[in-house]
Amino acid sequence: MQISVRYREVNVKAANGLMTGQPLFFEHPGMKALENLLGLEEVRQNSQEICACAVMQKRRQAAGLKAEPLSLHMIFKGSPGTGKTTAARAYGAILKEAGLLKKGHLVEVERADLVGEYIGHTAVKTREAVERALGGVLFIDEAYALAQGGERDFGREAIATLVKSMEDHKEELVVILAGYRQEMEAFLSVNPGLRSRFPIQLDFRDYEAEELFRIALKMYEEREYSLESRARWRLKELSETMARERTPDFGNARAVRNLVEQSIRRQALRLFQEERWEREKLITIEKEDLPDVRKE
Ligand SMILES: Nc1ncnc2c1ncn2[C@@H]1O[C@H](COP(=O)(O)OP(=O)(O)OP(=O)(O)O)[C@@H](O)[C@H]1O
Ligand SMILES: [Mg+2]
After folding, report:
1. Whole-model pTM?
2. SS3 sequence, 63-116?
C-alpha cells in the first residue's frame, strides 16, 4: 500500500515515543478502542508497528529514500467472541489516522454476501462488496466457507474476484479474512496463493477463566455497575465453569457480555419490585442477580 501520509502532530509525538519507550499512538481513537480490550498484545504490537512504519515511510520519502508500499491485508484466526470484529473496526480507525486509508470504515461480509446463485453473479456480488469497502476495511467472516463447496462451487470465483480486486485497488482497501484457527489453516493450505497476499496473521486465542472474569468486571464498570462481594465470588466461579466446560463454539467475551446483560436485567426486575431505589442500589449487582453455578 502506497503511503500518502497526511500525518498529524500526534503521529510525530507518538513516533518519538518509539525512541523513549513510551506507549505508541495511544491518543488515536482506534488505539483507545484496542486499549479497552483485555489481552490481545499481538494485535496491539502489530497496530503500533504499522503506525510507526507509516511515519517512517514519510520521513524516508522526505530524506529521498525508498519507501516501499506496505501490504496490510490480514488474517485473524480465533474462536467466536475473541474480539476479531472489534479489532478489525479499530484497525480501520487506526489506519485512517495513520493516513493509510481514506475512510477507515468496516464492511463486514460472509460467504452469502459474496457468492451468487448463477454464473457471473458471484463476481458482481464480490465486486459490489469491494466497492462498498473502498477507503476502508473489507472484513470477511468465516472466510474458509468460500472454499468449502468443492471444485465447481462459486466460492472459488469469489476468491479469484477478491484477489483481482485487491490488485486493482491496492492502495484503497485492506482485506481481513477471519475464522476459526483450524479452518483458516486448512483454507490457506488449499489456496497457497493467498498466504503471501495476507502477510499479517494474528491469533486471537481463547480467554482463560481469569480473563473472562476481568472482561466481565470491565463490562460492569463501563456500564456503571459494581458487584457486591458475594456476587464477585459467584462471577469468579461462573468464569471458571465457562472456561472449564467450553465447547468449540463457546462465545468467549460475547458469552461474558450475555451473562453481564442477563444479570443487569435480573437486577432491574429485583429493584422494580422494591420500594426504595437509591443510587447505591441502582449500581449494585447482588449474588442472586447472577445465575447459579452448576455443580457437576
Ligand atoms: N479482549 C476483550 N476485552 C473486552 N471485551 C471483549 C474482548 N474481546 C471481545 N470483547 C467483546 O466481546 C464481544 C464480541 O467481540 P467480537 O464481536 O469482536 O468477537 P468476534 O471474534 O468477532 O466473534 P465472532 O467470531 O463470533 O464474530 C464484543 O462486545 C466485544 O466488545
Ligand atoms: Mg465477528
Report:
1. 0.86
2. CCCCCCCCCCCEEEEECCCCCHHHHHHHHHHHHHHCCCCCCCCEEEECHHHHCC
